[in-house]
UniProtKB/TrEMBL annotation, chains A, B:
GO molecular function, one term: transcription cis-regulatory region binding
Name of the protein in question: LacI family transcriptional regulator
Xref: PROSITE patterns: HTH_LACI_2 (PS50932)
PANTHER family named among the record's database cross-references: LACI-RELATED TRANSCRIPTIONAL REPRESSOR, LACTOSE OPERON REPRESSOR
UniProt keyword Membrane, yes or no: no
DNA sequence: CGAACGGCGGAAAGAGTTTTCCACCAGGGG
DNA sequence: CCCCTGGTGGAAAACTCTTTCCGCCGTTCG
């Protein structure tokens, strides 16, 4: 019946053994089966083309081989790098990755988590920065609690403050170190492409940058801080607004690389030369963007590694009582998009 | 027992109805349930926090809500763009995407397909070019036949010749059109970054380009055709070899954008200016690479759309007897990386 | 030499749904 | 007044495995 699928029972019958024995030979590992029967079963299974029904196994074992991966947008190289690490780690363990994309909708994130729960996913990696809004964070925390309460494991990338293991880049220090480097080049007037106001990651990078400026006694003109989408086009748009309003900055810091890319495009379109007219720096060191010219000065994050590490955390058996946090520091990578400000 | 999960039976008992009724209210749609009981059931389900067990449903219904997506490398923007389209289409249907990465190993591709079969995936999208090798293609075709024979559906992106629906870019014509444009600019001596010798996509683009040259009476110096990996680093390396051997070409065509990116980097490192010293063109129009400078002349493929379309094909109910092929044509996009050859 | 034991095979009880069939009830036509 | 019909609820089989428990056999210890 079952649309042509061979069942374990058929294999057992073909081999002349019981269901239990067939199961023990082909899947279960707990108990030994005698050489003779073992061979008969494997031969039958092979001959009939048996393939275990994963759903039935999940149901019977009450644990699946699924690992969830939730990202905002898989086409964004930031997330696809993380995804690459996650899949590598999961596939190493013989697990299967379920990919969900939120499109940056908190509601969708909850739905996905619930779907994964209904599939009894063994673990979930949640990538993508949280907003600072109380309400959605609380609901997400609830959903996470339910998930872990049911025996699932969760790890987050870049989302501190949730009740789960977390791999979190040191955004503040990375941005601060970058700021110090730029100050060292001689810059004093900065413009900031700050991203969305409510995005945690954006805010942390901003804060770190700002703190370093303050420490150096540098004021930041509020008109030089412009908010916009966390995307390439957001960077482009923000930069146009900045230029339209007129700016005295000699250096522009975009809180991520894709925004910086948009900024460079906008500057180019405006006939400005980087770094001669304006220095530009980003954050993340997206691999695909390493070939931009001029090369983008940025803060390198080991994105694939972060994905791998998150997956490892989520899959580790030693369920620590307290959520662990792995902090990863960024490394300032100096390229040609930044230079000393031209005199004047 | 079941690690805290609420079962349908508990809901039924709580609502004072039978299992069948509860199932009909909460999941099945075939039959009507009276208003009173319906409300009681939904109320109980909500109160107890019921969430259906997807594995049990898959088992009982004998069809799952999983859609497989197999790519070579999710960090490659080519694949992540396609993946973005596939996930969008799948999520629109309320389905869940299972992501598998092959690392370009044919063996791994077979394993993944088998895993997806064991999960009773409803459909699979297979992205990534095939090699021209008979043996692996045959085995893949076998596996695909088994899959579809069991009621699954498969669609391929960019892999003609398999027994499945296919979305295939018109690589030959795209490359030919690009060649004609370049010839129109005045180029006569071309160098080709040809990618791996055994990769179907690479070969088709090569052939199309070559055909257009021949049609224009242009000879291609075999020493100007260099093979290498289909990656950014492959492009870099191939270009270095080309330069080391010395070349008289005025225009370099890389069979995909990421190789072209590597080529531009290598040229830059060699102190050559694009397009003054050498024009460069690619293929794909990867979104993330649109901000390179100089802008890369290339052939645009609607990658996300191709992923969506493949998913739609794989999910369409009207299982046509014969595999369908959707051909998508590329559009030459002219940017600054190509120019007329400098006199001399 | 009897009893305890260790190893291995099988029967059967789940795991959580869906779905088929049957039963019941009210209403309408003969 | 009886029978058939249409609508609704329930009992139970099915889906495919895993795993517990039980029984059998041949050893080995006391």
């Amino acid at each position: 019946m079952g649309s042509g699928y061979v069942t374990l029972e058929q294999v057992a019958r073909h081999a002349g053994v019981s269901l239990a024995t067939a199961s023990r030979v082909l899947n279960g590992s707990t108990r030994q089966v005698g050489r003779t029967l073992r061979d008969r079963v494997t031969a039958s299974a092979h001959e009939l083309g048996y393939l275990a029904n994963a759903s039935a196994q999940t149901l019977a074992r009450n644990t699946s081989s699924l690992v969830g991966l939730i990202v905002h947008d898989i086409a964004d190289p930031y997330f696809s790098s993380i995804a690459s690490g996650v899949t590598r780690a999961a596939e190493d363990e013989g697990l299967v990755v379920v990919l969900g994309t939120t499109g940056r909708t908190p509601q969708r994130e909850l739905e996905l988590l619930s779907t994964l729960r209904s599939h009894r996913a063994r673990a979930v990696v949640l990538a993508g920065s949280r907003t600072v809004e109380e309400e959605t964070t609380r609901r997400l925390a609830d959903e996470i609690a339910t998930f872990t309460g049911r025996g699932g494991r969760i790890a987050c990338v870049s989302q501190e403050g949730l009740p789960a293991d977390t791999v979190v880049p040191d955004n503040r220090n990375g941005a601060a170190e970058l700021a110090r480097h730029l100050i060292g080049l001689g810059h004093r007037r900065f413009a900031l492409l700050a991203g969305p106001t409510n995005l945690r990651t954006a805010r942390d990078r901003l804060d770190g940058f700002h703190a370093a400026l303050s420490a150096a006694g540098i004021e930041l003109d509020p008109r030089n801080v412009v908010h916009g989408a966390f995307t390439r086009d957001g960077g482009y748009e923000s930069t146009r607004r900045l230029l339209a309003a007129g700016t005295d900055a000699t250096c522009l810091f975009a809180v991520n690389d894709v925004m910086a890319t948009g900024a460079m495009a906008a500057l180019r379109d405006a006939g400005l030369h980087v770094p001669r007219d304006l220095s530009v720096a980003g954050f993340d060191d997206i691999p695909t963007l390493r070939d931009l010219t001029p090369g983008l000065t940025t803060v390198r994050l080991p994105l694939e590694w972060m994905g791998e590490e998150a997956a490892r955390l989520a899959l580790s058996e030693d369920a620590a009582e307290e959520p662990q946090t792995v902090s990863v520091s960024g490394e300032v990578v100096v390229r040609e998009s930044t230079a000393a400000p031209t005199a004047g």
